[in-house]
Amino acid sequence: MITIRPSEERGKANLGWLDSKHTFSFGSYYDPNYMGFASLRVINEDKIAPTQGFNTHSHQNMEIITYVLEGELEHKDSIGNGSIIRPGDVQRMSAGRGIAHSEFNPSSQETVHLLQIWIQPNQIGVDPSYEQKYFADDEKQGKLRLIASEDGREGSVKIHQDADLYVMLLGKNEEIKHNIPENRSLWLQIVRGSGKINGHIVNVGDGVAITQEKKLDFIATEDNTEILLFDLA
């Protein structure tokens, strides 16, 4: 079964300094039909104005992945980490029994554009931890590149959940085929560009829930198409 979550139907929040679109229920946006998908709980597409950001706030028992599309994001947390996250970087923060952090756009001119992803963990109360890795474009071009997994294989960041997160970059008419293991569900998020998934047309910002399918066939219909693929228990 293929179910498309159109970009324009996502929840919206505009605070002036923050323009955010919510794939699933988040904050003041509530849709009982979109409370998450398997262990995937949040995909927020955020645009943060120059010199603005989220003041220090806390999280518990959540796997949080930050994926920057444009600009830079400055991170500081209560366990001593401080970094700048740029396009190509994947940041993973396991909140565990509790962590506080802040996220700011350090630029005085450029907006930072990013995805905030939350995955519910399969363990609670773990020690909070942090990881950040860079994945070059040539590792993703024309193929699925694993960037997050439970076992950290293939150099991916490690999360506390039976979930694999892949990214792929495709030129126009490039195609990816993927066999779906039994009893797994997939979520695709169209980050840039457009394409056809098992014959269904999808565009930038769309999400796609895939259940009870054996194969995934994605063809890009424009250059510089970028897709995130979540393979979930």
UniProtKB/TrEMBL annotation:
Belongs to the pirin family. Fe cation binds at residues 57, 59, 101, 103. This is Pirin domain protein. Residues 8-119 form the Pirin N-terminal domain. InterPro entries: Pirin (IPR012093), Pirin_N_dom (IPR003829), Quercetinase_C (IPR041602), RmlC-like_jellyroll (IPR014710), RmlC_Cupin_sf (IPR011051). Binds 1 Fe cation per subunit. Pfam families: Pirin (PF02678), Pirin_C_2 (PF17954). Keywords: Iron, Metal-binding. Residues 146-232 form the Quercetin 2,3-dioxygenase C-terminal cupin domain. One of its GO terms (molecular function) is metal ion binding. Its cofactor is Fe cation.
